[in-house]
Design goal:
alpha+beta, three-stranded antiparallel β-sheet, 12 helices, 16 strands, about 30% helix, globular, binds heme C
Length: about 450
C-alpha cells in the first residue's frame, strides 16, 4: 500500500514540477528574498555543489593587480571595467545601467565600440579597441568616462493616458587617447541576471531552428534569425545564445570573454589583453595566464547551475488574464514560453527539464530607437546594430527585490515593464501598437503577469 502511495505521490510531484509555476522544472527554487537568484538548482549533486561553491567564490572575488601576495586572485587589468563579476551582476542579478538624470553611466553598463567601414562592415576602434574600459591599474591610464543625457519621447495610449520615455544619448569625458570620432558606433549593454543560463545552453538546437522556421512562415512581420557565431569551443557556425546580441555560443566562452574584456584576466581561451597600439603603458603591464582552466570551469559550472525561482501570484485571476493578453497581442511569438531541455549536459539537473524561459533565443530587428546605429552595420559576431536577442523573461519580477531597481532592456533605459513594451519597435512594433490599444485593465493584468514570471 505504502509503495503505491509513494508512487502516486511521485507522479504527482513530477507533474507539479512540470507546471508553469516551476519555470526551471525540478530545479526551481522558492526563495523570494534578496538572495533569490543566488541558489544552485534544487537537486544539484553534492559534488556539483562543491564546484558551484568554488565557482561562486571566484565570481565574487575582487581581483588585484599583479604581482600580489594572492597569486590566485591577481592579474587585474591593465585596463578594466570592474574588479569582480559581481560588480555588474550584483547578487547574480542585473545592473541598473543608467542614472535617473544626466550624469555618469553605471559601472554595470559596458560600451562596445565599432568603427563603420564599407558595405555595413565594422572594425575595432583603433585607439579604444572593442570595449570602452574606464579604468587602468596603477601606472596605466583608464580610457576615460562615459556619460549620458536624456531626450524625452512622449506618446499616449488609445484611452488617452500619456506616457514619457527617456532616450539615453551617450557621450564621453576626459578621453585619454583622443576623440572617439564620428564614425564610431556605441553599443551599450547592461549586465543581465544570471539565472537559468545552463538550461538555456541545454535547449536543443532543433527547437531554436524551429522557432525561426515558424516565424518565417507566420507572415506577421516577425522574422527572428539564429545568430551563427564562430565559437572557440565548438567551432564555426555555432548558435549564439548569450549576451544581448546572442554573440556567444557557450557559457564557458562567455565567461572567459567576461574575464578578459571586463576585468582584464586572461585564460587559455583569451590569452591576450586588449591594449591598442597607442596605449603603450597598457602594453607594458600585460600579464599572461591569469585564470587556470580548472577555475574557469568551476565558474562556468556556477553560471550553469544558478536556479530560477518559482512564480509568485501564480494562478490569480489577474495573472491568468495577463497571460491571455500576452498571447493575444503576440508577445509570445518572440518570447517563446517553453521547451524541454536536451540530454546533453554533464550536470543532470539541467537535462530533460520542462522549462518556461519566454525567449526564442533569436535576434530581431527592433527598430530605430533601440538600434546602436540605424545603418544596420554588422556589429559583432554576426548580429547587426539593429538586432537584439529576445531576452528571457523568467525571474524579472524579482529584480526589484534583488537589485532594488526595475530597469529593463539592453541598457536599462526602460524604468518599468510598461516602458519596456513601449520601447519595442521594428519586428516588435505590432505588439507595441496592440498594447497601446488595450484597456487599462488589460494593460495592468499584462504587467501583473510579467511581474509574476
Ligand atoms: C563591467 C560589467 C560586467 C562585469 C564585470 C561582468 N559582466 Fe557579465 N555581462 C555584462 C554585460 C554587459 C553582459 C551582456 C554582454 C553582451 O551583450 O555582449 C554580460 C553577460 C554575461 C553573461 C551572459 C548572460 C546572458 O543572459 O546571456 C554571463 C554568463 C556573464 N556575463 C558572466 C560573467 C562573469 C563570469 C563575469 C566575471 C568574470 C562577468 N560576467 C563580469 C557585464 C559584466
Ligand atoms: C519581435 C520579437 C518581440 C516581440 C513580438 C516582443 N518582444 Fe519583448 N523583447 C524582444 C527583444 C529583442 C527584447 C530586447 C530589446 C532590447 O533590450 O533592446 C525584448 C525585451 C523585452 C522586455 C525586457 C526584458 C529585459 O530583460 O530587459 C520585456 C519585459 C518584454 N520584452 C516584454 C514583451 C511583451 C510584454 C511583449 C508583447 C507586448 C513583447 N515583449 C513582444 C523581442 C520581442
Amino acid at each position: 500500500m505504502m509503495k503505491y502511495l509513494s508512487l502516486i505521490l511521485f507522479i504527482f510531484a513530477q507533474n507539479a514540477l512540470s507546471s508553469e509555476e516551476f519555470p526551471a522544472g525540478s530545479g526551481t527554487t522558492s526563495d523570494f528574498s534578496v538572495q533569490a537568484f543566488s541558489h544552485p538548482m534544487s537537486g544539484t549533486s553534492s559534488k556539483d555543489r562543491r564546484d558551484f561553491t568554488v565557482g561562486n567564490s571566484f565570481f565574487q572575488t575582487t581581483w588585484v593587480s599583479s604581482p600580489a601576495s594572492t597569486p590566485l586572485r591577481d592579474g587585474l587589468g591593465p585596463n578594466f571595467n570592474a574588479v569582480s563579476c559581481t560588480s555588474c551582476h550584483f547578487k547574480d542579478g542585473r545592473g541598473r545601467g543608467l542614472p535617473d538624470t544626466d550624469g555618469k553611466t553605471d559601472m554595470s553598463l559596458l560600451l562596445r565600440l565599432r568603427v563603420k567601414g564599407e558595405n555595413n562592415t565594422t572594425t575595432l576602434h583603433p585607439n579604444y579597441g572593442g570595449q570602452f574600459n574606464p579604468f587602468g591599474v596603477a601606472g596605466v591610464p583608464g580610457e576615460g568616462e562615459s556619460h549620458v543625457y536624456f531626450e524625452t519621447i512622449t506618446g499616449e495610449f488609445q484611452d488617452g493616458e500619456k506616457y514619457e520615455l527617456k532616450k539615453p544619448i551617450y557621450y564621453f569625458k576626459n578621453l585619454n587617447f583622443g576623440e572617439m570620432g564620428e564614425n564610431t558606433i556605441l553599443s551599450p549593454r547592461v549586465g543581465p541576471q544570471m539565472i537559468g543560463l545552463g538550461l538555456l545552453e541545454n535547449i536543443n538546437e532543433s527547437d531554436i531552428l524551429a522557432n525561426a522556421d515558424e516565424q518565417a512562415k507566420s507572415g506577421d512581420g516577425i522574422s527572428g534569425r539564429v545568430n551563427r557565431v564562430y565559437s572557440l569551443v565548438t567551432g564555426p557556425f555555432a548558435i549564439g545564445r548569450f549576451g544581448w546580441k546572442a554573440g556567444k555560443a557557450s557559457l564557458l566562452e562567455q565567461n572567459a570573454a567576461a574575464y578578459n574584456g571586463d576585468i582584464g584576466i586572461t585564460s587559455y581561451l583569451f590569452p591576450d589583453e586588449e591594449c591598442t597600439y597607442v596605449q603603450t603603458d597598457c602594453q607594458r603591464f600585460k600579464t599572461p595566464d591569469d585564470i587556470s582552466p580548472e577555475l574557469l570551469e568551476k565558474v562556468t559550472t556556477y553560471t550553469k547551475l544558478l536556479a530560477v525561482p518559482k512564480r509568485r501570484d501564480f494562478g490569480t485571476p489577474q495573472v491568468f488574464r495577463g497571460e491571455k493578453v500576452f498571447k493575444a497581442i503576440n508577445c509570445i511569438a518572440c518570447h517563446t514560453a517553453s521547451y524541454t531541455t536536451g540530454n546533453n549536459s554533464n550536470l543532470d539537473v539541467l537535462n530533460n527539464q520542462k522549462i518556461y524561459p519566454y525567449t526564442d533565443l533569436l535576434v530581431h530587428d527592433m527598430g530605430d530607437d533601440l538600434a546602436d546605429d540605424k545603418g544596420n552595420h554588422i556589429n559583432e559576431e554576426g548580429a547587426t546594430t539593429r538586432e537584439w536577442r529576445t531576452p528571457p523573461l523568467w525571474g524579472l519580477g524579482l529584480v526589484k527585490i534583488v537589485n532594488t531597481h526595475t530597469r529593463l532592456m539592453h541598457d536599462g533605459r526602460a524604468r518599468n515593464f510598461s516602458e519596456a513594451i513601449l520601447w519595442h519597435g521594428g519586428e516588435g512594433q505590432k505588439s507595441k501598437e496592440a498594447y497601446l490599444k488595450l484597456s487599462k485593465a488589460d494593460r495592468d493584468s499584462l504587467i501583473e503577469f510579467l511581474g509574476s514570471l
